[in-house]
Amino acid sequence: MQSLPRNLSDADLLSGIRADGPQRRLYENRLYEKYDYLITDGVRKHRLTDDDCASAYSDAILVVFEHITNDRFKEQSGLKTYLYQIFSNKCVDAIRKKTTNRSSVHEGPSLDDSLLQLPDDVRSVVQQLIMQGDADRLHQHLQRLGDKCRAMLLAWADGYADDDIAQTMNYNSAAVAKTSRLRCFDKLRERYRDTP
Amino acid sequence: MNNLETIENYLTGQLAPADRTRFEATLRTDPALAESLAFYVQTKHVVRAEARKERKAELDALRQTPRQQPVPMRWVAAASVLLLLGLGWLIFRLDNEVPTTAQLTDTYLADTYGQLGTTMSGGTTGTLEQGIDLYNRQQYAEAEAIFTRELNRQTNRSRRSSGSTLKGGLGLASGSDRLLKFTGLAAFQQQKYDVAIKRFQQLGQRTDLFSNPGLFLEALARLKRNEPMDKEQAKKLLGTVINRNLEGKKAAEQLIETL
Q1: Taking 80 as the threshold, does the pLDDT of residue A131 lie above it?
Q2: Does a structural domain hold residue A57?
Q3: pTM for this one?
Q4: CA distance linking residue B236 with residue B72, whole number of Å
């Protein structure tokens, strides 16, 4: 995998992250590094510890990655301004978490997004089934699934297409990668079902 | 079609409208399919949270990795100018460097007394030539022993024949000035500066010589020995050499400038 030049413009970073190939991660890393001085700013402005601020910055940058790939970032503001706004919110979340012991309202993707397209009557049934599910047990089975299956599912959940997964994990084609991924899914479901 | 694949195609909008309607109808009547869909959505959520956690750890690690900061061009330019100035100064210094006292002393000694001439005035040529030959082959200890023995022999002979009428009042015979010089030089070459100074002092006290390098050589030996007061003594001696126009005046003028 080739290395990237040190000083990339925001336009280069955006197109690199949107290109969605195996190099996406390198562009993401460059974006992280380009603005990580905001952490020092955050420590000064919000009076947070260095670690808390770095964590808020990582959370913010992950949101920005997601917004770039799903086109929620429309480039109506500069990339730095956009990142800074999210980062400031994450810092406020961190302060709130410290002072009131309440967790962030922006933590992780919501389940509802996937379910919105279901007909209303089906949605409530599925939501109920999800609530009955045991996320912790599922997580434990995921950890024990085997390195290759786990890596494949993680890459998929991280937004990588089957084509990219095929390239990175040496599968012949995207179709083969998809079949393998769904097989891993099945394996996880069997273990989850069979082992209490 | 695989159950999970159909679910995935449905959730990602890849089913044709007719298949989509049929899928939704089945969902209402088939609890197993509804359960599979719930599992798919929940798994995606769990895996995504895990992927996010790992990615966050990777990003945090990036921050811990020391990065090579790009050096701004203005600093590179400034460093280059400083380097050039430094080199220029060094070259200028090398071209115009004034030799140190030690360098001048060594140079003078090597140029003037690196090799001794073999032309002798006097009758004891055999022994002296042997000493000079040893000196010229840098066997200084052996040369010094021969010169000292010859010097003592001449002194004793002179005392016996002349009673108290001795050259310079030191009990030294005519022609022994060379022996004093050679003995001193052989000691000097072995860095036996105390012996060398003593011999050169004896030589310097001789008043019957047309050309006497004693004072100048003593100054050189003192500069090399470099004990307390040696430098001041050497300076005085060099001053005397210059004022009295003695042997070594030219070199003394150079040397005194470095002191």
Answers
A1: yes
A2: yes
A3: 0.53
A4: 59
